[in-house]
Amino acid sequence: MNLLRLFGKKTFPRGIHLEEHKAETNAKPTRRLPFAPEIIVPLAQHVGKPAKAIVFKGQLVTRGELIAIADGFMSVPIHAPVTGTIKEIGLAKTAQGGKQAAIIITTSLSSGQQLLDSDIQFDYLQMSREELIQAVQNTGIVGLGGAAFPTHVKMQTPADCSIHTVLVNGCECEPFLTTDHRLMLERIEHLLQGIRISMKCVDAPKAIIGIEDNKMDVLHAIEPHLPDDNSIRIKAIATKYPQGAQKMLAYSLLGIEIPSGSRSSDAGLAIFNVATLAKIGALLPKGHGLIERTITVTGDSLENPGNYLAPIGTPLRYILDHAGFKGKEAGVILGGPMMGIPVRSLDVPITKGTGGVLVLDERATRRDDISPCIKCSSCLQACPINLNPSELGLLAAKRQYDVMEEKYHLNDCFECGCCSYVCPSNIPLVQYFRIAKTLNRERHLQNG
Amino acid sequence: MAKSDLKIDIRTSPYIRKAPTVAQIMRNVVYALLPLVIYSVYHFGISALALILVTAMSCMATEHFFCKMSGKKSTILDASAAVSGLLLAMTLPPGFPLWMGAVAGFTAIAMGKTLFGGLGFNLFNPALVGRAFVQAAFPVSITTWTPALATDRFVEFIPSTLALPFMKPLPTADWSIQVAIDGFTGATPLALMKFQGIITDSYDLFMGNVAGSTGETSVLLILVCGAYLVYKQMLDWRIPAAVIIGTAISAELFYFIDPDKYPSPAFMLFSGGLMFAAVFMASDMVASPVTPLGIFVFGCLVGILTVVIRLFGGLTEAVMYAILFGNAATPIIETYTQPRIYGARKNKQDKS
Ligand code: SF4
Ligand code: SF4
After folding, report:
1. Which among A212, A230, A254, B265 counts the fewest CB atoms within 10 Å?
2. Which residues are [4Fe-4S] cluster 2-binding (chain A) (predicted)?
3. DSSP-derived secondary structure for A280-311
4. A149 C-alpha to center of ligand 2: Å?
5. Nearest to A240 by CA among A437, A391, A382
6. % of chain B residues with pLDDT over 90
7. Alpha carbons A406 and B14: distance in angstroms, whole number
8. Between chains, do B295 and A377 touch, taking CB under 8 Å as contact?
9. Is B49 a domain residue?
10. Which atom in ligand 1 lies closest to the alpha carbon of residue A417?
11. Nearest Cβ partner of B290 from A18, A337, A380?
12. Which residues line ligand 2 (CB under 6 A)?
C-alpha cells in the first residue's frame, strides 16, 4: 500500500467505483428556490440537544430572526428562514416516519430576500478562540455534509490534542450529488474565509482542501486564490467511493490512519465539509444565522434537476413540484444513493443536514431474492475499513451480535454500503449491521 | 427477524447495487468449462461426452429432488449443480462406467452439498466429495486410464463405459493397446513418473496429448478459460496463483535436493490435473477462505500438500485430496487470518 501511495494516485485501499450521475446537475449554476407557503422548522436538526423555541403562536417573525435558542453547548440555535407568522409550535413528520417538535411558519406574501440585519459586525481576526467558537455556535451551523454534528463542538478540540492540519472535505463521493462541486466554483471567497476561521478555531497552521479528481475545474478555479504562504493547499485524490469519509480522506491526503474508536482530533486532524466552512465564512463575519442551504435535486422523472438554494424547512413536496417531478411512484431519498435516508412522506422538510433530494424509480424499490453467502470475498475486497462483512453477516444471521462487536470490529463499520453494493447474494449486510449495532447499544444500556 | 421487518430492510441504503447474481456467476463458470468439455470430447470421444452428460444430469436431478423433498424452491436454475456435475466429470477417467458416474453425481450433491444445507453452507467442494466417494467405492475403475486420440473414439465407446450397474466393467487394457497410436501403457504421466521413472515431455503435457482424467488435459486451454473468468471478475485469481506458487516452491525444493529422484517443478505443475484443480476446484468460493491472507495460506497449503502426497503417498491424483484437506482447514485458516482493520491499535494499552 505504501508503494501505491508513492507511485500511484493518492487514495485509500479497497472501496468501489460507482457510476457518477453528476453530469445532470454539475454544470448548471445554483438557482434560488422560491419560498414555500408553509415552512416547517424542526427543533432537532442536529446531533445533540434540540433547540428551545422562543417564539409563540401568531407571532410575526422576520427572515433571519432568532426563533429558537441553543439548549446548552451540545446544541445550536435556529433562525427564521422566511418572514411570516408562526402558525404553530407542534409536531411534524420526520423522514423516518416518526414525529418531532417543530416550529411551523406561514410565509408572508410579502416575504422577500431581505434579511433582518444584525447590529454586530465581527472582525474574526480580532477575536479570541473562545469568542470565535461562541460565534460559530450562534450561526446555528452544523455539519452540512450530512452528519449534522454541531460544528462549534468539533472545533472545541480537547486541550491535550494539538491539531496540525485542517482537512477540508470537498470529495463529494456520493453519486448524483453536486452541491459541493457548485459551491467550490461559486463561493470561493466564502470558503477560504471559512477555512481561515476554522484554522484559527482549532489553532492549526495549515489546511488542505481535498477533492476527487473528477472535479479538476474546482482545482483550477481555487488555486489562484490560495495564499502565497502555502498555509492552504488543494489536492486532487482518486475518484473512488467512499473517498469523502473522514478516515479515508485522512489516509488519502496524508497517509494517516485515525485510530479505531477515536476521533480525528486524536490524530491531530480537524475535518470539515466544504459546505460547512463556506457557510461559516459567509455568515459569521456578519453575525447571521443559517437559514438556507444548497441542495441537489436530481434523479429520475425530473424536468429540472439542479442545485437549488432552498430555505431550511421547505417541504419536499414543494421542492419536487418545483423541480418538475413527473413520475407517479418513486423512492425519494434524502442524501445520496449509498448512505441516504428513504423518506416515507413528502410533507417532510429539508433540514440543515440535507445535502440532496434524490428521486429513484425502480432502483430504490427493487427487491431481489436474498441467497446464502457464497463466500466470494467481494465484500472484503470492497470494505474500506478492511472488515470481514461476510463473517459479520453470517454472525448476524445467527444473532451473535456480541461476537460481531468483540471479535469482528462491528463498531468500526461506518455503514458506507460498499459491501452490500457488491454482494452477489443480495445480502443486505449494512442493514444487518445497523440492527446489530442498535441491539448492542440497547444491551449495553441495560447492563449499565 | 420477523418477515415484516425484512420488507423495510431491503429499502434502506444503499439504493444502488452492481453485482452479478450468484446464478450469473455460476452460468459463467459453465461457459468457461464448455471449451474444456469440447476439447476433452475431441480427445476421448463419445465416452467422455456420455460421462459428462450423465454426471451433470445426475447432479442436477439430485439437487432438484432434494429441494422438492424439503419443500423449497428448486435451486437448479442457479446452475451451481451443473457446475458441480461438470467439474466432477472432468476429474474422472474418460472410460469411467456411466452408472458409476451417476453414483458420483448423486453423492456429490447429496453428501457434499445438501447434507450441509445447500449452496453456501457446504464445507467441501461437492464435486470432490463425489469423487472421493467413488474413489473409495470403485478403486479399480477410477484408476483405469485409456489413451487420448484413439482412432475410433467418435464412433466407439470405451469398453468400460457401458458397464451395467453393479457389474464389473470390461477390462480395457487390450483395447487400449489396440487403439493407441503409439505404444500406450495405460499410465498417466504421474504414474509413469512414480512407478517407472519416465518423465513426460512438458510440451505434450501443456497441450494435453496425454492420458488422464477427462478434463485435466490441456494446460493451455485451462489457463485461457480461467483467464476469461478472472476477466469477468468471477474467479478469484489469487487462489490458483497461490496453489501454483505452493506447488512450484515445494517441488523446486525437492528437485533442488535431488534432481534425479524428484521431478521438476514444471512437470509437477503441468501434470495430474493440477492446473485444472487450481483454476476450477480450489477456487470454489464457498469452501475456500475469504480473508486475503487466508486465501494465500490456503492456496499454498494445497500446493505443498499436493507435492508431498504425490511424492510420498500412494495416490497419484493427489491434488484432489489436497484440496479436500484445504477445505477442511478453511475455518481454522480464517480464524487466524482476519484482516487488520483500518486504524487497528497495536496493543490493548493503546486504548486507555
Ligand atoms: S458498510 Fe461497514 S462493513 Fe460494509 S463496507 Fe462499509 S465499513 Fe465495511
Ligand atoms: S459479498 Fe456477499 S456472498 Fe460474497 S462473501 Fe460477502 S457476504 Fe458473502
Report:
1. A230
2. 383, 413, 416, 419
3. HHHHGGGT----EEEEEEEETTBSS-EEEEEE
4. 33
5. A382
6. 7
7. 26
8. yes
9. yes
10. 1
11. A380
12. A 373-379, 389-390, 393, 422-425, 427, 429; B 290
Answer whether residue B167 is part of any domain: yes
The full set of domain ranges for chain A reads: 3-26+119-286, 34-111+293-364, 378-447
Q: Is residue B151 domain-shared with residue B70, that is, in the same domain?
A: yes
On average, the pLDDT of chain B sits at: 79
Given a contact cutoff of 8 angstroms between Cβ atoms, the answer to whether A230 and A208 are in contact is no
Residue A44 pLDDT exceeds 70:
yes
Q: What is the pLDDT of residues A146-193, one digit of tens each?
A: 778 888 888 888 777 788 889 999 898 899 999 999 889 888 889 998
**Alpha carbons B270 and B288: distance in angstroms, whole number:** 23
The residue nearest atom 2 of ligand 1, judged by CA position, is A413
Q: Of B157, B186, B215, at which residue does a domain stop? A: B186
- What Cα–Cα distance (Å) separates residue A129 from each residue in A20, A118, A156, A199, B233? 40, 21, 9, 10, 53
Provide the CATH number for the domain formed by A34-111+293-364 in this structure: 3.10.20.600
Q: How many domains does chain B have?
A: 2
Q: Is the CB of A430 under 6 A from ligand 1?
A: yes
Mind telling me how many Å the CA of B6 is from chain A's nearest CA? 10
**DSSP label at residue B236:** -
* Residue B171 pLDDT: 65
To the nearest whole angstrom, how far is the Cα of A337 from the nearest Cα of chain B? 5
The whole-chain average pLDDT of chain A stands at 85
How high is the pLDDT of residue A130?
A: 84
Higher pLDDT, B345 or B231: B231
Do B28 and B172 lie in one domain? The reply is yes
CB contact under 8 A, B338 and A339: no
Question: A211 vs A195, A297, B114, B295, CA distance in Å?
Answer: 15, 21, 51, 35
CATH tag for A3-26+119-286 (out of 3.40.50.1000, 3.40.50.11540, 3.40.190.150, 1.10.760.10): 3.40.50.11540
d(CA A44, CA A386): 34
Instruction: Tell whether residue A383 is among the known ligand binding residues.
Output: yes
Residue A419 has pLDDT above 90, yes or no: yes
Is A201 annotated as a binding-site member?
no
Residue A204's pLDDT band (cuts 50, 70, 90): confident
User: Do B51 and B91 reside in the same domain of the chain?
Assistant: yes
Minimal Cα distance from A372: which residue of B? Answer: B120
Q: What is the pTM of this model?
A: 0.85
